[in-house]
Amino acid sequence: MKSAIVTSTIAPLMPVPEFNTEKADEALCGMTVEIIEELSKGWYYCNTSYRYKGYIYESHISIDTEKACKWKEEAKNIISHRYVDVMAEPKYQSHIIHNLVKGSIIKATTETSDVWSKIVLPDSREGWIKSVYIGDYGASSNSIPEKELRNNLVNTALDYLGTQYRWGGKSHLGLDCSGLCSISYLINGVTIYRDAQIKDGYDMREIPREEIKKGDLIFFPGHVAMYLGDDKYIHSSSRNSGVFINSLNPEHEDYWEELAKSIIKCGSIFDKKK
Questions:
Q1: Could you tell me if 176 and 220 are in contact, meaning their C-beta atoms sit under 8 angstroms apart?
Q2: Looking at domain 3-74, does it have CATH number 2.30.30.40?
Q3: Is 60 in the active site?
Q4: Active site residue: 46, 60, 172, 177, which one?
Q5: Rounded to an integer, what distance in angstroms lies between the CA atom of residue 20 and that of residue 18?
Q6: In the predicted model, what is the mean pLDDT of residues 57-71?
Q7: What mean pLDDT do residues 50-73 have?
């Protein structure tokens, strides 16, 4: 099976091989995909590294199995800032060669210049970004204490607060409910199912509502949110026009009765013994 690397800032993942339809998901720059089937007119049916399938157009990917495998081995850094310009030289007076969103995967080099670091893009171009925008990618979440990981998940989700709603999106340019939750987990080294459900084969398991803690998920009909603690949850809703915080407590001003009374289940990735 052939493999490819996403080279565009964002690669729309479509439910059918057509442009004029809703998106299923977005693959971010530096992510790798497996080519399941090559279709006509430049479309490819792909499986992402987080096991979500859809159709990607050829202009968004570089199909090269050897290069993709090497990239997965060597690209160990992630963009930790909301939106980053990649500059041709280590200064803002240079010209922009690419744009990256939070969660994009890159390869950082050892070459630095003051507060800048040279990076390698998945299309092999080199450019410069501020060093503070670079994080580590691929670190096992198993090595992080539960309390710290829960805080990291919540803080990552909170960073998207105020972002507009976008069906199928999962960046600061716009995201939907499951996009917010899945990218918040993915950035922290945890793969959960991209849609608003608990699916077999992923680490998420159902828990009683009374056991929910910060970083766990709340599932509603066709909707999902991340629990923040103290009855609060963060979610991306078309009714709110984006990422917003609401409450499960009817005494709170931001209580959303319709959602609070329609909880289907709660989910957690954490061992119930901890």
A1: no
A2: yes
A3: no
A4: 177
A5: 6
A6: 98
A7: 97
